[in-house]
Fold this protein.
Amino acid sequence: MSMLKQEQNEFITRTGPGTPMGNLFRCYWIPALLASELSEPDGPPVRVKLLSERLLAFRDSQGRLGLVDEFCAHRGVSLWFGRNEDCGLRCPYHGWKYDVNGQCVDVPSEPEESGYAKKIKLKSYPLVERGGILWTYLGPPERQPELPEFEFCVVRDEQRFVSKRLQETNWLQAMEGGIDSSHSSWLHRGDFEHDPLMKGAGGNKYNFGDLAPVFEVVESSGGLFIGARRNAENDNYYWRITPWVMPSYTAVPPRGDHPMHGHFWIPIDDENCWVWSYDYHPARDLTHAERDAMRRGLGIHVKYVPGTFTPLANKHNNYLMDRVAQREGRYFSGIEGIAMQDASLQESMGAICDRTKENLVGTDNGIIMARHRLMRAAKQLAEKGTLPPGVDVEHQKIRSAALLLPKDAPFQQGAKEALIAKLGQPQVTV
């Protein structure tokens, strides 16, 4: 099947200011920080790099959130060194002070009556808490969309767990791994048997029983529905249906009554991204055991290098590869944990994967269609100003699903109701 030309690979991977794909990302609210990172008024500011822009987030004395240019307008000092005090962030170099909107409110060396401070304003963006995440919008203020309505955002806190981790690759190859259901029967097979957030689901046997799923991909209002079917008994197929909502949201098909989960892949710059991972159950609180497992880095979450969001297993220690565990089949790749099994292979491709050398097959149809949809939307935005799919909150009210359907039933009809988010109602699962 077709591979990308080098200019197409550049087009789809680069997200800095002024790039077509960067402008596309700037149409959406994107995760910036965990709410817990800015929990206290007048607490330490936090560096935030998104879409190659270096920013700084802080919460002022009144609890208001700010996201501003990292650097003081005076002589370019990083305001990360600043004092967060009296409803503003004061640069320690010469005392210039800024409020949460980036407005300079004090230049000590200049007379107040001169009005000089009022002329100085840092670039700033909105920062809003929703679903345990602080979201920002980096696009034109007049096109700011409604706040996100993904189901995990709107359930009660007791039903949700959210984490993030650093990944040292371009966002696209990380996201493409998330919409590739065919690898799970190989790479993650040990986890389906041992991970407490995965094991025991009735559908697991179909993953082991059919290692050659057939993919059917259809466009949705916000992106794609990627259906992977495997053979099952009684003239049925076992379907696992992954929604992808542009630009980079996915929901992983459920396993039994385990919490549902999924990801966002958000560019830091062109060679690094944040992988946001969420778990939630639409019809009940997470149990203490489930939440404890997530905190310990099980399921789709990770253990960290203390004091950071860098995974404990990373490329600098060969992901703590265990060849004995690989030989014995505990971990098919020899690496522990679903998240790092994915990340290790995606990082092995290099910072930006060279897609001109690929040899794609039928199971890559979801990836191929996602690339085309992204490039088409970015071009329409650039040429006509057309807002891309996924900005409309109605496009976000979807679910993944896992179910058995008769072999003659198209999944988009047979699973239609299962793919709609319905607050309070359990997922459709096997």
